[in-house]
Amino acid sequence: MLCKVTSKNQITLPKELIDSLKISEYLDARIENGCIVLEPMIVRPLVGRRLQEIRRKIGERNLREEEVSGIVDEVRRAGRL
Fold it and tell me: Which one in 14, 39, 54, 71 has a CA-CA gap of 20 to 30 Å to 47?
């Protein structure tokens, strides 16, 4: 099926394709063997102990917004996310 890429790098997928796969609002996109692969994803809010740990570290360090991704990576490496 023909898909269009806009000047803002947005892709329009045909309705028939979306309907046949029962795709939700979010897709995971990746490259495999030179092809774009889209996989339906369910996005759940981050709650509980993991979120508390991230917020605690951000508060302790008085971080700016752009520094937050490093904290998330640190918690993930420690196996707590």
Answer: 39
Predicted TM-score of the model (pTM): 0.47
Q: Give residue-wise pLDDT tens across range 35-71.
A: 999 888 877 776 678 778 877 888 888 887 677 877 7
Number of domains in the chain: 2
In this structure, are 48 and 80 located in the same domain? yes
Contact of 37 with 29, CB cutoff 8 Å: yes
Tokens of 29: 């996109």
Exposure string of 20-34, with b = 16+ CB inside 10 Å and e = fewer, is eeeeeeeeeeeeeee
Q: Which structural domain range is residue 26 located in?
A: 11-41
Backbone angles phi, psi at 35, to 5 degrees: -115, 150
Q: Two tokens at 41?
A: 């994803």
